[in-house]
Design brief:
The complex is a heterodimer of chains A (about 250) and B (about 230). Chain A contains 9 helices and 10 strands. Chain A is α/β, with parallel strands linked by helices and about 250 residues long. Chain A is globular. The relative contact order of chain A is 0.17. Chain B is an all-alpha fold and about 230 residues long. Chain B has 8 helices and no strands. Chain B is flat. The chains are: A alpha/beta (about 250), B mainly alpha (about 230). Chains A and B meet through strand 6, helix 3 and helix 5 of A and helix 5 and helix 6 of B.
Chain lengths: ~250, ~230
């Protein structure tokens, strides 16, 4: 459903993405793993054109696009099929939880207010926050804010949702609730690309794993194969270092 | 205080206050409203990086902030007629005050827009909104909360600065006071009186500012916490 070939991106002379390929089918959950600074977030931001790739082609829903030159209009059209969940939530600070979800529906998709609110309430219910519709982001915990952000993403009925380290900014005790919501989406067949450091989540929920290091995709394979038949020394040492960290705790 | 001075103060009070309500306040209100329009446009031009226009805006802000308000009033009222552009005193004062305050407020508004986290813009893009939609519905309302106290400051300054318009024959509060003082020679009492009226005007604005801030905070859920 979404296929990217030869994705490159530099910032001020240093190349962050050195030709990355990836491919996901409908219903896939692709976990993007790897050390910090490996290009995971930049990859995700390029996929939604928050950063403009220097090179690369994207095939989405049978349409092939040249990523560096895609017109603003085509980017907007593409974004109506996608959603993005940020590490720092980025809820609209001047809007209530419900308005955060309806804003895109009403303003960008021209949906009647009533219908948008019904759909938003359903989305908030899905993330367990039906009673927080009138709360402002500043009145919600980090975990609740992230769940509202997920409701906002889901409400647009996207074909694919991008998650950029959705639990990295959360208190440990709030992480579980957010991961549960993402897991439930996976069970409902939502296609997702999730940049994460939650290795157990990747192991249990994702269908495929992309391992990024030094701006390259060192591995892209089914989750079971990635964790059980891993041959690459670099990936093994990364996984060992995570085990060690968990062992120490 | 002698009975004579008291009498002068009592009879002049409604006259001075009347000019305040009829001239000083309308002059301030119209000029400040225009200044805000100028400020938002100039701030947007700078932030959206509109080529060419941005240089013009920087030039305008540089000129205005680098020259005295009083000199600007003289230039426009006494100077421009040499080029065949002669405006009546009141519109002339409005134009100068609006252009002057607009330049200062442009910087306030620009800084406030830049203080809104970039993630707000990105989140807007990701739900499919356009630049203009995000600006109008998400960024500017948040920037306005940040800009509100410094803009209130500017408004308070402007109330008092309108006294400079006396120099170009606008009969606002200060000129009215000067006339009474010139006739009665009670300078201390009369200038104290007009100072008190300015103080009352500014106190009301301060009070309105507090009210406005409370209201804006309520619209952001109690306090301003940035995502």
């Amino acid at each position: 459903m979404l296929e990217v070939k030869g994705l490159r991106k530099s910032f001020g002379g240093s190349e962050i993405l050195k030709g990355v390929d990836l491919s996901i089918g409908k219903g896939d959950v692709l976990a993007v793993l790897g050390p910090s600074g490996g290009g995971k977030t930049t990859l995700l931001r390029c996929l939604n054109y928050l950063e403009r790739a220097d090179a690369g082609t994207m095939t989405f829903l049978d349409r092939t696009m040249d990523m560096p030159t895609l017109s603003r209009k085509d980017v907007a059209a593409y974004r109506r099929h996608t959603a993005f969940v940020f590490q720092s939530f980025n809820l609209f600070a001047n809007k209530t939880a419900l308005q955060n979800v309806t804003e895109g529906l009403i303003v960008a998709r021209k949906m009647p207010k009533r219908e948008a609110e019904e759909r938003a309430m359903a989305a908030l219910e899905r993330v367990g926050l039906a009673d927080k519709g009138s709360a402002y982001p500043s009145q919600l915990s980090g975990g609740q804010q992230q769940r509202v952000a997920i409701a906002r993403a889901v409400a647009g009925q996207p074909d694919v949702i991008f998650f950029d380290e959705p639990t990295s900014a959360l208190d440990p005790e709030l992480i579980g609730g957010v991961l549960d919501v993402i897991r439930a989406l996976a069970e409902d067949g939502m296609t997702m690309i999730v940049v994460t450091h939650e290795i157990n989540f990747a192991r249990n929920v994702s269908t495929r794993v992309l391992f990024m290091d030094g701006g390259k995709a060192l591995a892209e394979e089914p989750t079971a194969a990635f964790f059980q038949e891993q041959k690459l020394e670099r990936v093994q040492s990364f996984l060992r270092s995570l085990d060690r960290k968990e062992g120490e705790l | 205080m002698s009975e004579r001075v008291l009498n002068i103060l009592i009879t002049s009070f409604p006259r001075i206050l009347g000019q305040g309500l009829l001239v000083t306040i309308p002059l301030t209100a119209i000029s400040f409203a225009l200044a805000l329009v100028i400020a938002v446009i100039c701030a947007m031009v700078q932030i959206a990086d509109v080529k060419g226009l941005k240089q013009i805006v920087r030039f305008y802000i540089w000129i205005i902030r680098g020259t005295p308000l009083l000199v600007q009033l003289y230039l426009v009222y006494f100077g421009l007629p040499d080029l065949g552009i002669a405006l009546p005193a009141f519109p002339c004062a409005v134009a100068v005050f609006a252009l002057n305050e607009g330049a200062y407020c442009a910087e306030t508004v620009r800084a406030s827009i830049e203080a809104v986290p970039r993630g707000q813009m990105e989140a807007g893009y990701c739900v499919g909104m356009s630049y203009i939609q995000i600006m109008r519905r998400i960024v500017l309302p948040q920037a306005f909360r940040t800009a509100f106290p410094p803009l209130s400051n500017s408004l308070i300054s402007m109330v008092k600065d309108t006294s400079l318009a006396a120099n170009i024959t606008v009969t606002e509060m200060f000129m009215t006071t000067q006339r009474v003082a010139g006739r009665t020679y009670e300078h201390l009492a009369l200038y104290a009186e007009v100072a008190l009226i300015y103080l009352i005007f500014c106190t009301v604005i301060t009070w309105l500012q507090r009210l406005g801030e409370k209201k804006l905070n309520a619209m952001n859920g109690g306090n301003v916490i940035r995502a």
